[in-house]
Write a structure and sequence with these properties.
The chain is mostly helical and about 600 residues long. It contains 23 helices and 14 strands. Strand 9 and strand 10 form a beta hairpin. The longest helix has 27 residues. It is found in: Cell projection; Cytoplasm, Cytoskeleton.
């Protein structure tokens, strides 16, 4: 027993020493705070082969999926998740760090900022010298979007039609993403110009102009202004990502959040689910305002216990006070930290739902609140369809929104029925995929099939005739026989059924097609049904078909009690259980699908 006590004491000392060691590494390279202890140990152990660090880069750098190495193991550039390569201004040589991974990662961070800044300068200089179409495809997406917003108002009207025409052609995936984001930017600029003309604005001091998010090129640096707030562009590499459609509600939220930044406060958008609270905070960060001083957005913040909220309020006050007095260093929880003044904290809240709590007074004063209740669904759908190259974007957007409005009024009320922004987004994504697969299909048929593919699988049997009647009224010229399934998909599924010694039952094949379509537009899909109704076989056969087409598929039978036991563990070093092990088994660096069978949680676990 004495030896056991001694071993336990030694283990505690070793654990404490390890935690202190990892803490020093995190203080040297703060982005390590985004990693767990196990992931950080895995990185620090790769002293000889820097390429073994690649799987963890995405957690440290939002826009960097991997690094481009030369044959001499020197880092020459960064690659986004979409495959966009940006060359570094100077090479980073990991060998010079002599095994200290955190040292060459700091160099990567510095070179990322310098390279984006250098590319931006060259893009601004090259802009007047080449055609607009050639210039768009020549530079990284982030740089194109940034430079396009510097003085874009005088040309946005002609540029919209030009870029939309490019979208309808044959393009690479990355270029198509860039053009879609560029159309969203130009359409917003066109709307701003029309609004300024309508209000007879002639002065750059007018509030209607000052209230816009404006980009300026000053001394070879990008400057972002809005009302009284002026911030420097951060040059954090974002990759080739889509941008949020700017609506009047989004602009109001931007103004509130930018005002909060100017006063060294946080922002607190609140409203129902699916109104764009979190996405608006993320899109403002994508505007380039956040550098390595990261922005934290705590979702559903008012779900926490009151005691925890009070403690968090004191911690946030400590950070905001240090930023307000422009301190170089400050003491946080007994640790002396270097302060990056670009850091900030945002929270989102759903005050009308059960289980939510009122914020304590010491927290309320630290945030500026903005209500986000009802987004402009039609405007968002119209601009999104326009950015995808749809000519009839206006009428089709109204039909999508009218479909969901009529469904909410006429169909039965079910917990899993959703007619909000997430459902609209799923239809838009499905329409985008269909337009690429079938470019010759009429636009109305594309949208109709997208609506059916996204919604039919979730409706109960008694609601399907009502739904079909609604879409028939909104799309009277389209017949059901015109909406056909991809013949190649049908043939492939039939072959897969034969290989698995299963009968080709039309209903079963229909469910496989529905599952496939839902996986394309949803991050998570739940297959629900009675026992022995074919739920497991649907995804097993579907997974087998996907594996034949080079997709990575992992099927894991799961027991919810393994996760329940993990959740009951106390302390910071708790074991996360089955779910963590399964997720880690599927590499985040490659696209794939994960199926969890019997993944049902009793109410006491949820």
């Amino acid at each position: 027993m004495t030896k056991l006590h001694e071993c336990n004491r030694l283990l505690e000392e070793i654990q404490k020493g390890l935690n202190d060691y990892l803490e020093k590494k995190r203080l040297f390279f703060p982005r390590f705070f985004f990693l767990s202890n196990d992931e950080l140990l895995e990185i620090l152990s790769e002293t000889k082969d820097p390429q073994r660090v690649q799987p963890h880069l995405k957690k440290c750098f939002e826009g960097i999926s991997s690094l481009h190495f030369s044959p001499q193991q020197e880092i020459e550039g960064m690659i986004s998740a979409e495959g966009e390569l940006v060359q570094f201004s100077n090479r980073v040589i990991p060998a010079k760090a002599r095994g200290l991974v955190e040292r060459w990662l700091v160099e990567v961070q510095e070179m990322m900022v310098q390279s984006v800044q250098d590319v931006t300068i060259r893009a601004v200089e090259n802009h007047p010298l080449s055609s607009h179409q050639q210039w768009i495809t020549q530079w990284p997406s982030q740089v194109v979007l940034t430079v396009a917003q510097i003085g874009y108002l005088d040309v946005c009207n002609t540029r919209v039609d030009e870029v939309v025409a490019m979208v309808r052609g044959k393009l690479e995936h990355g270029t198509r993403l860039t053009l879609g984001s560029l159309i969203v930017t130009y359409v917003h600029g066109r709307d701003v110009v029309q609004e300024l003309i309508r209000k007879n604005v002639s002065s750059d001091k007018d509030f209607s102009w000052v209230a816009q998010l404006r980009y300026y090129w000053v001394n070879e640096l990008v400057q972002v202004d809005m009302i009284t707030t002026r911030l420097q562009y951060g040059y954090e590499y974002l990759g080739n990502t889509s941008r949020l459609v700017v609506t009047p509600l989004t602009e109001r939220c931007f103004r509130t959040l930018m005002g909060a930044l100017n006063m060294h406060l946080g922002g607190a958008p609140e409203g129902p689910a699916g109104t764009g609270k979190t996405e608006t905070c993320k899109d403002l960060a994508k505007a380039g305002l956040a550098q390595s001083g990261a922005w934290a957005c705590f979702d559903e913040f008012n779900r926490m216990e009151l005691e925890v909220l009070s403690v968090v309020g004191q911690q946030i006050l400590t950070i905001q006070s240090a930023v307000a007095r422009k301190a170089q260093r400050f003491i946080f929880e007994g640790v002396d930290l270097v302060l990056n003044k670009t850091c900030n904290i945002f929270i989102t809240m759903n005050p009308s739902y059960m289980g939510r709590r009122e914020l304590p007074d010491n927290l309320k004063v630290l945030f500026r609140t903005v209500a986000m209740m009802v987004p402009d669904y039609v405007l968002i759908a119209k601009i999104s369809l326009f950015s995808l190259g749809f000519v009839q974007a206006d009428s089709l957007a109204r039909k999508i929104i009218d479909t969901y409005r009529l469904c909410s009024e006429q169909l039965s009320s079910q917990h899993h029925y959703d007619y909000g922004m997430r459902a609209v987004k799923a239809v838009l994504l499905a329409a985008a995929n269909l337009k690429l697969l079938m470019p010759d299909l009429p636009e109305s048929q594309v949208v109709l099939r997208a609506i059916q593919d996204v919604n039919l699988p979730k409706f109960l049997a008694q609601d399907i005739p009502l739904f079909e009647g609604i879409v028939q009224d909104l799309f009277p010229s389209e017949k059901e026989s015109d909406i056909t399934t991809d013949p190649a998909l049908e043939s492939a599924l039939k072959n897969t059924l034969a290989e698995n010694n299963l009968q080709d039952v039309p209903y079963f094949r229909e469910k496989m097609i529905q599952l496939y379509n839902m996986v394309l537009v949803r991050h998570g899909v739940m297959v629900v049904g009675e026992p022995l109704s074919g739920k497991t076989k649907v995804y097993q056969v579907g997974g087998s078909w996907r594996q034949q087409h080079s997709a990575r598929v992992c099927i894991s039978p799961s027991n919810p009690q393994t996760l329940a036991r993990a959740l009951q563990q106390k302390g910071r070093q708790r074991r996360l259980g089955m779910f963590k092990a399964v997720i880690r088994g599927v590499s985040v660096t490659f696209p794939g699908m994960l199926f969890l069978d019997m993944f049902f949680f009793p109410p006491n676990i949820i």
